[in-house]
Amino acid sequence: MPGVSGRFSTVVKAKISKLLDRAEDPAETLDYSYQKQLESLQNVKKGIADVVTAKKRLQMQSSKLEQSVVKLDTQARQALAQGNEELARVALERKNVAQSELQSLDSQVAELEAQQQKLVDSQQKLTTKIETFRTKKEVIKAQYSAAEAQVRISEAATGVGEEMADVGLAMQRAVDKTEQMKARADAVGELEASGAFDDLTQLGSGEDDIDRQLKELSSTATVDDELAKMKAELGSGTPPDAKQIEGGQA
Amino acid sequence: MIVRISGEGQFELDEARHPRLDELDNAAVAAVERGDEAAFHEHFEALLALVRTEGRLLGDEDLCASDVILPPGDLSFEEAGADFTGEGLVPDRL
């Protein structure tokens, strides 16, 4: 059968025969195969732990960013209250960058959550199959002659092997995704370390590289809008009034 | 025939559906080859839908091997392309 499924079937089947690529003696096949299955299940458990770790890392990164957003917002208000509009603008620009990073992190956390759930389901399926195999191999041992047993065993082992190969594929895809997200989290970490979201009171007088980069990154329009909103809030002090002004500008 | 959708499970499908399966399969491949992402998704999803709706899902304690193994439902256009260029989707480890 040509095409995507034929191609895919061939690749998976090659994995299965690699997995079961030993043993002429039925007893040896049974033990070897069962051993392999248990090892594979261990790998899946380890893989799930990796995904959970990656998810926690992203969540930590995310809560840090949340704090930065709140802090930068407060700083912008303070700066504006003191009449320093330039400083307020810088703070809002940084807040924008932090917010867009935050959104992207949140969606990645959700994606990892889904991966994790999928892997847990796969693990459950594989566990059931391995248990079925274990029971079956005892029956086969007791009931069949060596020749018959060989056939029955290879059938059952292929069934489990296919599940193992399939779970292995799911693991690999999850690991690849996790790697991408780790890189992403590291990039955010670097941005943070570079001082992009730092306390503005520590800021020097002039503009540095990061400032210029941040300005390029964030949209001026958003910052202008927010600045206007903040001014309105500070000016009137009452939310209804602020809304009115905001509405008038839109 | 037994068809596995990678990451979902195995389905028992009437042998009579085999030609239709082949048809959608080839259409999906042709779409990848001419770089038509929308058509690829359309045919590939129709292929999976056929198996899911007309097949009977086998239990976890079933140990039979599949006749055909389909890639996972969230297969991207890029992954499908990689599959055909020979790199393959299944990892060497495990």
UniProtKB/TrEMBL annotation, chain A:
Keyword Coiled coil annotated: yes
Coiled coil regions, renumbered to chain: 55-125
Keyword entries, A-Z: Coiled coil
Keyword Ribonucleoprotein in annotation: no
Protein family: Belongs to the PspA/Vipp/IM30 family.
Protein name as annotated: PspA/IM30 family protein
The species this protein was found in: Baekduia soli
TrEMBL record, chain B:
Pfam family, one: PspAA
Entry-linked InterPro entries: PspA-assoc_dom
PspA-associated domain sequence ranges: 1-92
Superkingdom classification of source: Bacteria
Protein name, as recorded: PspA-associated domain-containing protein
Organism taxonomic ancestry: Bacteria, Bacillati, Actinomycetota, Thermoleophilia, Solirubrobacterales
